[in-house]
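Prompt: May I have another protein with tokenized structure?
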Amino acid sequence: MTADDRERQWADWMVAGLGGDEAAYRRLLTALAPALRGKVRRALARWGVPDADAEDIVQDALLAIHLKRHTWRREDAIGPWIEAIARYKLVDALRRRGRRGEVPIDGLGDFLPGDDDPAENLGRRDAERLVDRLGGTQGRIVRAVAVEGTSIRDTAQSLGMNEGAVRVALHRGLKTLSKLYRVEP
């Protein structure tokens, strides 16, 4: 399939999705993810930045595409519109990152406190106390994913939600936790 054929397929799925065809819209987002992932990873490599944040940038781009889908004009090519959104999300991520240096962590485990360290347990209790303040679905999601290490997929299935909604709730919950921590260290 050529790049033009692929973009025509994306445009067809977007048109169908805008018309209410959820399956076509899901196919569009599923097809966009790997394409965006590759572009983001290549761009991060060009900037000399490790691609650890690539998936977050891809998810931000997919969310922005979803939220701004009504701005795409059918008479315009969809590829440049998608690339512009992804580029803005990449630039945003690079700006947030700033000039932060990367430090290798190999061998750092020898210096970190173990599970039996009282300070570690105190920090864990404080974190759990803050998570308890979230309550509701957001609290369950943060506890499952961030504290217990459950995957997004498993958390979504256990709560009867889709993965995107779980990611959004997790992001908002972590943001709320950050605010709570600043108010009550």
Remarks:
- Residues 117-183 form a domain with the Arc Repressor Mutant, subunit A fold (CATH 1.10.10.10).
- The chain has eight helices and no strands.
